[in-house]
Write a structure and sequence with these properties.
8 copies of one chain form a homooctamer. In chain A, the strands form 2 sheets. A 5-stranded parallel β-sheet of chain A has the order 6-5-7-8-9, with helices on both faces. The first copy, chain A, has a 4-stranded mixed β-sheet with strand order 1-2-4-3, sandwiched between helices. Chain A is of the alpha/beta class and about 220 residues long. The first copy, chain A, is globular. In chain A, strand 7 (about 145), helix 7 and strand 8 (about 165-170) form a beta-alpha-beta unit. In chain A, about 35% of the residues lie in helices and about 20% in strands. Chains in contact: A-B, A-C, A-D, A-E, B-C, B-D, B-G, C-F, C-G, D-E, D-H, E-F, E-H, F-G, F-H, G-H. The interface of A and D includes residues 141, 188 and 189 of A.
Chain lengths: ~220, ~220, ~220, ~220, ~220, ~220, ~220, ~220
């Protein structure tokens, strides 16, 4: 296509859905890549997509069942049936404003066959809200923790459980949160074992990694 | 003295002890300033003092009862009796390595007449250690929280109590702790109400501020 | 509510009003949280609220006496009578452009029962403007100092008084003020004793902390 | 112990060895904590330990079989038999200078029962060195990738496999590597799916997380 | 002209086209400089030009054959015939979103007489896409590599070839890409020999430098 | 006025015009301060003023001869005659895009009675443009040098003359110019003697300082 | 000399002493450059010189009257008589620890014929110490202000006087002073007119610039 | 060898000497790698080598003709005859303190067969020193420019010539030079065409790249 080198082996090799990261691409380019990917019959996920891109896709009338996940800003095309995981991946957020990132993690994990459970607005300044979910967290194979501002939630969750915790710093905050740097540093410096970190606001990467881990666990090698 | 402009009104005006911040001053300068301050019969505190400065001070044979607080790296001269506060200021640390900063806060608050209580090594990665002290924290008029690495302890303590919390980020940590920047940002971005922050490793400032607050409270206006 | 975990114990436990921090929340979410909080009969404060959120709240016709503090961008619902403090908390600003942050601190302290006094545009480049207020400042139990650009005002005020000073750096400034970082660093490095710092532009946090301190002082333990 | 709050539930709760992070602690403190932990019969790991701390430990004559892993700067006490994993965790480094961090990851994973395989000096500037290990990497359940300087190895490995990759930026490099910031940012921005990141030089955290993941996989839930 | 000091010797002295960097200049200023440069009969390139500037230029009816390269945001006036190079300069991009920068490099190199070949969307997370172009890259005299996010492509290309590689970090990315800083640092820290770096998004500078090098090679001294 | 503390002694004490820095002030506030200052019959300068503020000022019909300097975004009210300096202050810019900052410096110096001479677009990449002005520069009492991007012009000018050079970094540039940080650092690190620096884009401060210096020189003490 | 290109025209052209900046040069190189400069009979100043360099210079027995200014770490050779200025340049420091930088400014200004007056330890946290010097400051033609930590002294002095103020940030401070960055930013953002800034700890540059300004004033053009 | 994966194809594939970057490697590791590389009869260069490593190498008595370039901190083993280039690569430095980096560039270029010419101490604050070399610079095929502090030399040289300029920022400087960041940013933002940049202090990379370019030019394709 000139502007894009589509990688059809990727879905087989890595067990990933076909994914388009939309920022920096024109609507025209996105539609062409989307079409190219969809033709093989695979499931397709377009992340960080503005709603007008979705509208343009629908207008092509080429994609049945394509849908727009508004909170996540994701376009989803399910053409192949997705088999659900047995266990549930908790997606825990510190505040209501972290929801769009949680939604991106959720839609990503789900298109990879994972069941998820959103535990929302349980930041560390009111610990009892989080502690009420302790059992659910300790049952998980892997947990996604999403927090902006001081980002302390990942450490606290990490201290409660014995599974890996994927921490997503968000750009929520003002002043010295520096667009998520504060939360990022907090999470990188976590004293709790088993906490690893992805890029600021990168719900997608957290969703993929959590799914990769849980798949390995459920399909024991 | 040429190199220093000693401010004798300060003890009266601000109710502070005479204080010398040692870094960047020669031993000779410190001894001259110390002598000048001590002559008025006031209590004197020299912070961030190397032990050899203390030895040189002792050798002058001018100061009875001068002592060196090794953990705090502080030289203390008590010439005036200090009246003790009724309430106790908890000084809470996330880890063992934060102790020198806690010691500086402690010696500072004590020379200002405050009783203190050290609660050590109760970082957020093992919440139950902290939660065992909840009652003690909720009884306080003001609390000092000291933490390096991710610095999340201030937010968690702040969420448990209704008094002001003075947060001290420390330079303890490696890599992306950036000499205390990570903890500093965490504390500045705290979602918990009532948390204010002092400079990295500034146990002295936390001790002074906590003492100023508690004095005002005990000597109701 | 799914997207928010409202904490009704907080008002009792911490003596705080119910507070909603609006950025990152949709208008719909804010209204739902606001309604949920208001139902218990408590006072509610929504900070950083755009005027159109207020208009939407009014249109619900559910909240009598709700008002919009434009300078502070705060929505205030007073349902319970607030008892006024005896003493006054001075809120001092370096420049006219710092007023929105001062307004946020003011509305916050007031909903917590504090009387406040605004001392405006007394930056250090014209010291006589500040020195005229010395007596008023020395009478206070706690002072809020708000400054952008070089943020030097906190140190100068801190040197004049013997009470705690809560310093709020603001994002006012250009070039190397870096959105408030210059003022933040100035305040963190203050040589004056008793100065603690909150996040850039965080008038709310300054207002809460000043109120917590003054309450403790007036209601002597 | 005053200076430390040992958490004996942790080994049970989180399935972790007893761990002491040495920097900032005095030799005396380390020995006391080590003794306290060892008394319960558990395995103990002390990380970032200078060799003289080990010598002091040995001199106490209390710990049979304690050993010093020089490359990793780790003290290891194996009192309980460790059961070995079936699968092997590859630990891949970009350069020879990254070996100390790899050694820390290795000793950590091993005390948690994991078998490991070191693949050393396979940085991206000579791709054929890495590509020779492709099969081994694709067989793994989880991979640790360690790189300083530009840190690009994590992305390249991530693109070759379908398992989670734990990326460890190291402080190896000069000039604009900024003590590992360059590698850290590279890894956080990785385009390859499944890559998560730990703190600069934090081989310990990578080892723990990889072990937690592989345990979950081998002990299918 | 008062606001600009046009340098007509430059084209002769340095063998460069006349170039106008548009940001910060008013449309009126650009047109005057453009006219001044065009009068001498030389080729003119205006970079980072908004389309409305081009429209205003066309409306002057003074410039035949002036054209707008939309992807590159460049205005090109070819008045002198440009002689083509024998060899081709590969311009390699990591992703589709890097295309505007590639386009700027391309139009710049071409107005300096260089033939170019765009190799697009061959980022390191799918190595086989790049490796298919190995022969073409090894035949080149100089290569331009353009990448945002983690910017690792320059190192990988640099390791495959023995010619100089000019690396252009782009501002493509989110969160901790920090507007291109991550890619910039990656490229500056490249372990591959022969990699030099230009400013973030500076396709123009890469195009000029590649052209200067290839000219020297083709016109052997 | 509540929101502003106007300092009428300033014009006498410091020999400055009355100045209003507009950002962060409402139009209403600016008009009130402007009126208050103008009433005393002094000259008034409002910097960084949007054109609509000027329009609003004009509509009040209170200020004869008020004018808007568009390039400088300054409102100027000359009510008192300004006596001109004998010597001329050169204002040297590296590029055309630095003109707005030069214009601010110019209008500021002029309202303080200084004659100025703009030397524009003489950046170091084409030295002969600058060297043509050497004589003029060597005749000056003080020089203002304004440059963005790499900001090297201040060092080169500083090396040519024996008078003080006031360097103004500008935010002109892209990528790693970081909004003027690159130029700021260049200027702070200048090897040329006599170069001092003001804030990024602060033409006002450069104008004032140059005027203060030249006044002192012409009115020999 | 191969390693250095000595510029003998400089003393005439710029009216500067011969100056050697020592860091990064070997003792051997410094002695050769020093000898080369001294041969012409001019005065020579070597800054940031370790005492052992001075000892080595003395051992050559080539330089009569060479002396070492210990506080300033400067080597001074006065061969030509220096004519003293009529007016005095105040050098004001915030703290005792800023003295080495003040000493460098002083020795530099003096070798350029300026009389200086040190006003030491008058930081803004105790304003009355500074205000006692107001008259002396208001009589000056130019003032040097030296401060570390929060660096607020420059703004306060700048607000008291109508002459130019040269601000020198120092690296004195801990934690978030970041080696002088805090003071540098404070000074760059100063609201007081007439304040310009030199590099962190650059007493030399402040001394030169103050001397250049005062010379121009005393030798009215 | 376990700790290193030696790449013997590299010398053939990329026309590079065998190179060992020493930092982070133990002396024992360096000797083993050195021996392994030397056995094939190739030339070997070890950069950033402490002198004691060289002494240890000599003691093995395995390497005839191995020599230590002290200024460059490089160990050189020439076993194969190196054919000299016809043209000369100028290596230009701003100051004497930049010489170690220049020496590294020189030894690197020379082992790759390039003749070099050192032009030293010609920083921009004394332009006439540089301008005296104009002809020599304009004759070059490629130039290396090395500068610390403000790093402006690269732009000035770039403006004088029509060949590519490789700019090396050095860590020479104090305060706001931030270990070379100031010079790095200056060079990245250079307005002069044809300037590309390598890492701070990376004389090696500059030497390699200049050699690669000049080889291509002399062996016209």
């Amino acid at each position: 296509m000139g502007f894009a080198c589509v990688d059809h082996h990727r879905q087989i090799r890595r067990g990933l859905p076909e994914v388009i990261y939309c920022p920096g691409k024109t609507t025209e380019q996105i539609i062409k890549i989307f079409s190219n990917l969809a033709e093989k019959g695979n499931n397709v996920l377009a992340t960080r997509a503005e709603e007008n891109v979705f509208v343009s896709l629908v207008r092509t009338r080429k994609f049945r069942n394509v849908r727009y996940e508004k909170a996540a800003k994701a376009i989803v095309l399910e053409q192949k049936k997705i088999k659900s995981s047995k266990s549930v991946i908790p997606i825990v957020t510190a505040g209501t404003a972290d929801l769009p990132i949680a939604a991106e993690a959720k839609v990503t994990a789900e298109i990879m066959g994972q069941r998820t459970k959103l535990i929302c607005d349980v930041g560390v300044a009111g610990l009892h809200r989080l502690l009420g979910h302790t059992q659910q967290l300790q049952n998980a194979n892997v947990i996604i923790v999403i927090a902006g501002m001081e980002g302390a939630l990942a450490s606290v969750v990490g201290g409660l459980v014995s599974c890996p915790v994927i921490a997503v710093p968000t750009s929520i905050g003002t002043g010295a949160s520096f667009g998520g740097i504060a939360a990022l540093l907090t999470m990188l410096n976590s004293c709790a074992s088993g906490v690893t970190v992805v890029n600021i606001d990168n719900g997608f990467s957290a969703g993929v990694t959590a799914a990769l881990i849980n798949r390995k666990i459920e399909v024991k090698k």
